[in-house]
Amino acid sequence: MSDQDDILSDAEREALAAVTAPRAAPQKVLIVDDNQAARDALASYLKAKHIKCVTAENAEQALACLKGEQSIGLLITDLRMEPFDGLELIRQIRESDKAALPIIIVSGDADVADAIAAMHLSVVDFLLKPIDLDKLMALVRRELGIV
User: Fold this and answer.
1) Angstrom distance (rounded) from CA 53 to CA 63
2) With a threshold of 0.85, does the pTM exceed it?
């Protein structure tokens, strides 16, 4: 079919797409940290930047949240938590139906072995605390597709 045979113009196609395309639900960030002050501070910061957040205080809560909340588009997790740590949380996510979920690790207590293990689990980045908020926001915006 040649361009002359098109039934709709480009402008008509764009108008039709705007009317018929379902709007994607805003994606949320799931913040996992057993330190309530750190978790709340990060959530407050992201919310002030118009990023929707949900929080979990440990890996078990995070997994439950991922099962029940379909709009999570990014996970930010601490590394050192109980009853199991951030690396084990990521391993379980990578073996689930959420395997492609982008994940950022934040940690105040990490070593090179932790960073290497994280990279083998295909995390987006590994940030040390105190977090560089500008770098974090750039990562969050990129992973959520926010311009």
Assistant:
1) 15
2) no
